[in-house]
Design brief:
The longest helix is centred in the N-terminal third of the chain and has 17 residues, at 5-21. The protein is an alpha/beta fold. It has helices at 5-21, 69-78, 94-103, 116-125, 157-162, 176-188, 212-223, 235-245, 261-270, 289-296, and strands spanning 36-38, 50-53, 60-61, 64-65, 82-87, 113-115, 132-135, 150-152, 165-168, 193-195, 201-204, 207-210, 228-229, 254-258, 274-278, 302-304. It is 35% helix and 19% strand. It is globular, with a radius of gyration of 19 Å. Residues 54, 56-57, 258-260, 282 line the site of magnesium ion (MG).
Length: 307
């Protein structure tokens, strides 16, 4: 990771505060973990049978692998541990994520990669059809959305007016102008608004990107319309992952591994599984972990230096 400690810390301060500011829209904390310290997953492997792995900050930073992670995960898989990915990546076609993780040296079955896009699709499958306006980035691939009736949100005001609901799956093509237009149309005529990536930000090679959660919460503040969130820390993505894992696994021996207290760890605790916070390779690198845990009240079962 090519981030200076100061840059990382500065960002954490604002990012942490921003997550704290939206806590009332996040799940409640059912329990506190014991915050036991270990160097990495190999040291605590006797305590779990299955891993749910966050991607950004644990498996990859932007387009690069977290150094040592592919080897570590491979060792654990070879020793019989089940490893799945649980990622708030909604803005990419599934094939692109499978390909990217494969290219970084990871070996996951395509079905073992659970994303907030899959959680959204599961939600849409239960919903009656309507015409959606969709905020998505350039890399959005429509094929998994089948015959869903939607139009991409751009600069044409009519698309916003005609939409019967809004889906937010990617922020890379979003801007203040489009955000203002969406807020305006929702204020005048409230409609359902779903956000398929609750993350506020994601670590990239050179800093942090703004993710759909940031816009979703800002829209909630401006309009009073609380979005339906799909992805961590919300239960829908954990339900999908645990259903795919199957009933053979004891939840007390399933470990969510992530670098973010307010998504991975909060979501894992709320889902009734074990949690491990990775501190040296993700968003918390260089920060005061104890202070972050105390201030948030989100205490993981384990604190690991690295995956
Ligand atoms: Mg992460």
């Amino acid at each position: 990771m090519d981030l200076g400690k100061n840059a990382s810390r500065d960002h954490l301060d604002s990012g942490f505060d921003r997550y704290q500011a939206v806590r009332h829209r996040l799940p409640a904390i059912p329990r506190q973990g014991a915050c036991r310290r270990a160097a990495n997953l190999a040291e605590i492997s006797e305590h779990f049978d299955a891993l749910l792995l966050d991607a950004f900050g644990v498996l990859n930073i932007g387009q690069a692998a977290v150094p040592g992670s592919p080897e570590r995960i491979e060792q654990l898989q070879a020793s019989g541990k089940r490893a799945m990915v649980v990622s708030n990546a909604a803005g990419f076609p599934h094939s692109a994520i499978v390909e990217r993780l494969g290219g970084l040296g990871y070996r996951f079955d395509s079905d073992d990669i659970i994303t907030s896009r899959k959680a959204l699709l599961a939600g849409l499958a239960k919903e009656s059809p309507r015409h959606w306006g969709m905020a998505a980035g350039e890399v959005f691939g429509p094929e998994e959305f089948g015959d869903l009736d939607f139009t991409r949100l751009g600069d044409d005001p009519e698309i916003y007016e005609k939409a019967e609901g809004f889906l937010f799956v990617g922020a890379s093509a979003w801007n203040d102008h489009r955000q203002a237009r969406l807020i305006d149309t929702l204020k005048r005529r409230p409609r359902p608004f779903w956000v398929a990536n609750p993350d506020l930000m994601a670590p990239q090679e050179n800093g942090f990107s703004t993710e759909p959660g940031t816009y979703g919460h800002a829209i909630a503040e401006a309009t009073g319309i609380v979005p339906e969130f799909y992805g961590k820390p919300f239960g829908n993505i954990y339900e999908l992952a645990l259903a795919h894992l199957g009933a053979d696994f004891d939840p007390d021996r399933v470990l969510m591994v992530g670098d973010t207290l307010h998504t991975d760890i909060l979501g894992g605790l709320a889902a009734g599984i074990q949690t491990a916070l990775v501190v040296d390779t993700g968003v918390l690198a260089g920060s005061d972990i104890e202070a972050a845990i105390e201030a948030s009240g989100i205490a993981p079962d384990w604190i690991l230096e690295r995956p």
